[in-house]
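Translate sequence into structure tokens.
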Amino acid sequence: MPGANSVTSNQETLHKDLEEVVRKYARTTFLRPIADHTREAFAEAEEFVRKFYNAVGKGDPSQVETIKCMDPPSEDDSAENIAKQAPLTVILDSGCGTGESTIHIARRFPSIPVIGIDKSCARLDKAGNPSQTAGEDVPPNAFWIRAELLDFWRLALERVQAGEWTIPYHAVYYPNPWPKQSEATRRFHMHPIFPTLLALGKVIELRTNWEIYAREFAEAAKIVLNENAEGATVPANTQITCESFDPVAPETAFERKYKEARQTLWRVVIKT
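Result follows.
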């Protein structure tokens, strides 16, 4: 990745149309046809999840670790017990790039399958290389798939709503900020997919090096909450935090470059 430039934009504060756009999409459903290749990729991810839980049920599974910002798991939250229950527990790493973050997350939560998703074949071809694993094996619970994020999320939400999956943690690290004002509706929080994203996981963590993106993301979540105050997509007791942070051990190449360049990093945590 050449350099680690700060985000430059002709937008100096929250987008003037943020509330209007977010409210509009909070009242609608994103109906674009789902690409066949993403349906096929999702089926591969489902098969990996099934095989993972079938395998851990035969051995001596490690205990699920406490997920940051989540309630501590109970004593029954071993991989073997999860495998016997519905829904199955799955973690998503969306826009995983070369997959380094997927490895870090998989090591933190060894009893839960972690699905890294990216649309770039070139980036995913680098997933699991020695520079990422520090000489160790790739965690057996890490899996990468090439797919369109927006389509994958909708398929995942179908599984969540059907009671087949539960997603306790969803990582959205350093998405393209689309910094030009004219590109704002390509940002996740100003796109029709945003209500789906909010409904998908119990804890969503966004990371970015652009403060405006973080603050918009958090504000958009609050707007959707207010729009759905009478019990629709997002629970009323949702907690939203937006803060700067300094990662002790960077989890992506972007994060490492930004830290080395002494940029201020931001994260938004949404806990339902």
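Note: The chain has a mean pLDDT of 86.
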